[in-house]
Amino acid sequence: MRLDRFDRQLLNLVQEDAAQTAERLAEQVFLSPSAVQRRLRRLREAGVIVRDSAVVDPRQVGRPTFFVVSLQVERERPELLAQLRQWLAAQEHVQQAFYVTGEADFVLILTAPDTETYDALMARMVSDNPNVKRFTTNVALSVVKRGLSIPVPLDEDED
Predict the structure, then answer these.
(1) Which tens digit of pLDDT belongs to each residue from 114-150?
(2) Do 5-45 and 58-139 fold alike per CATH?
(3) What 3-state class would DSSP assign to 61?
(4) Which of 31, 46, 126, 153 is most deeply buried (CB count within 10 A of its CB)?
(5) pTM of the prediction?
(6) What sign for the dihedral angle of Cα 86, 91, 94, 96?
(7) Helix H or strand E encompassing 138
């Protein structure tokens, strides 16, 4: 799908705040509210916008601790990796899971109310996934930045 400058502007704006009204977005991109709605619907239907979500303060909902986990597997057989991916995707504490190059095979971002909850999750992961060789954990002392926004250049040839 080709994105024009208006699409790109809208993508940046809705990533910043998806709750903005079509009227407010229209003011910022100089289109009519109905044109904004049509464009957003087309971007969703094409799979450019995958999901709208709210950003929640983890402390307000009892999830104040973040864990960054590097995970190594024993064997990289496709069926074993698929099983682990499926297991990770089903865990509510796993916010993000990346299959990566380098020493680790996966990097995970988890949130939990405390280390006991985290320990229980990791014990279950190792028990349920015998292909897990080892993992190392970093506990986040503070959050400097947290987000999922993808910078969308306004022009197709910009970096």
Answers:
(1) 999 999 999 999 999 999 999 999 999 988 998 889 9
(2) no
(3) helix
(4) 31
(5) 0.83
(6) positive
(7) strand 132-139
pLDDT value, residue 109: 97
Domain boundaries, the chain: 5-45, 58-139
Q: CATH number of the domain at 58-139, please?
A: 3.30.70.920
Q: Rounded distance, CA 80 to CA 94, Å?
A: 19
The whole-angstrom separation of Cα 94 and Cα 111 is 7
- Report which secondary-structure segment, H or E, holds 37: helix 33-45
CA distance 26 to 49: 18
d(CA 26, CA 24): 5
Name which CATH class applies to 5-45: mainly alpha
Angle at alpha carbon of residue 106, lines to 123 and 56, rounded to 5°: 80
